[in-house]
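Dear colleague,

Following up on yesterday's call, I've attached the two folding results inline so they're easy to grep. Please treat them as preliminary; we haven't cross-checked anything against experimental data yet. The first protein's sequence and structure tokens come first.
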Amino acid sequence: MTSFKYEAIEGSGSPVTGVIEASDRRAALQLLGQRGLFPSILEIASAPANGSASPAQALEPARRSEMRFGTGIKRKEITAFTREMAALLGAGIPIPQALDGLGEEEENPALREMLLNIAESVRKGTAISAAMDEHPKVFNKLYVSMVRVGEEAGVLQKVMSDLAELLEHEDEVRSEVSAAIAYPAFVFGFGIFTVVILLTVVLPKLFGMLQDMLDVLPLPTLILLNTSAFLHRYWLVLLVAVVGIVFGLRWFFNRPDGAELWDKWKLRLPLVGPVFSTAALSRFARTLGTLVKSGVSLLPALKIVENTIGNLVLAKMIAHVAEETRGGDSLAAPLRKLGIFPKNVIQMINVGEESGKLDEMLLKVADIEERHMRAKTKTLVSLLAPALILIVGALVGFMVIALLLPIFKMSRAIQ
């Protein structure tokens, strides 16, 4: 335990000083908040008796165990910050002190500096939403808008808690999808790597011996021989061409017209298109439901969703929905015209509007669409993994046959 000296303000407005023992600074802030004290100064009074590291160094085990490369801020770190911030605000700790406590114990230098800067801005009178808006690469429009609504309505702790649930849910879905495609991607990548190594390094030496022994090689062997010779001779040119194509496509798809074309292709791709579509629709419903639940009006919420849905084609559709809703239509009517939501989903949204529980219905729709997305992903992966194994196996099998045919031909000649 560490002793902390503090200067704080009681609920009655009277100043108070004292010493409190806690495992770290964050725990000390929580204890003071539980006592109804609002600290302005909190500093270490004595080092831990057992000679262990100071609270600035004694970070949480989960954070300490994570190895870090570079100084970027990860999405999961923002999710953890949001959850911790909601807990500290729930304990009655003022915003600047909560930001200071989280910032000083943060292991990531970039995130620590950002949190301390936000705390300083808030201490000078800037709203926390405005301070977060100065870091658009970390806090997107959805995040900032929800925080602003929480500030204006006086329910920032509840909004931060809703945000944490939204981010945690999205992280969970991303992890499930990444884990599902990891095995097929590994199988395909390793198979292609093996085939390339065989064609460029191993087979040229074997084919040299076979050409010396036989005047006429079988057709499969000739095909493999020519392919291997081409790759062996022009591998550097091919590598440069592949890299150029990759960077060229990235440049094109980063342009507005290219990004819109790619988003349109993603929705129309066979097999994976429905997965992208369902994922985008579930994100739309969950984000809109969370915004409405937090007190954001429908039209501003639709505008926020339009900017954060991650698909330009669907964003244009949402903009059209917002325009029709502005004209007095309900949300269900323009969504029905789009034809992208199932009928039962439209009915649920309509019931939610009529009963005044639109946020609950949207979140239920999100749950339904996410279950469909997960089922489609599992089905796709269950088909994709055997298909990739079959493709790699066919390539390797063709190479084996191409190698064995001349050997069989030589054995017949010897007999």
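Below is the second protein, in the same order (sequence, then structure):
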Amino acid sequence: MAASSEIRVLCQPDPGKSCGACCGLYNYVDSSREALTERLRARTKRYRDMVQGPDDLTRYAAATFAAEDFRKRYEVIYCCEYLGFLDDEEKKVGCLVHPLQNGGVDMRTVSFYGQDVCAGHLCPSHHFIPRSQQRILLAIIDDWYLYGLCLTDIDLVVTYFRLIADRVGRELAPEMFACEALRETAAAYFAWKTTWPFRSEDVNRLGKYYFDGSQYMISHIDYEKFGREISPLNAILLSLSSEFHSASELALAEGMIWQNIETVVSLCGGLP
């Protein structure tokens, strides 16, 4: 997929993906792909069956709360009952009460955050991930579940591209990812967000954060226990929810990431 140079709102960038993280998509105790797909699919069907206009929303919301498990990782983040799939192909998650989904009728006033917040909020990734890196993400990820997880993990994105740029001697341009091998190598790195073999199985862990109901804590890796200094890959390892039981596991994990980075660097060497 070719990256466009136009300025985008990252939550709904193109027909192939979208992000619902600000609506609490990943804040359920069970936020696995399978569980969220089932949840969003059922909501979308329920909404289409039940809602013809604003007067039907109370009945829809009551049915949704009755049908679903709304237990959260972090109580402070609201999980919006109006988040569902926007297309039959289930490629895009988004607001079911948005005017584009209801013939121009804006029903977002019923949502927890209200119409103004929903319409005007931009997550920190819009400001802290450089525009060129945003465009690279758009070029290599076409999967709503993975896209939202990666887009909202600033450390995972920025640290990776900084380490590569330091070795290449320049920032990577989005146009470089027209190279299939480069695109696939970077995509393999971001896929680790869900497939990382050293990922903690703790249900209250998401990236570098641990959640305990109304509080959150930043995790850490005890390098001293393994006789090590803090890894230059520490931010990435934490973003991948890493949990290590031995020095050899840590070394293997670092080797996997460095190999991916060096492959990208090598491929960039042959590009203008």
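For the second protein, one point worth flagging: The first helix runs from residue 33 to 50.

Best wishes,
A.L.
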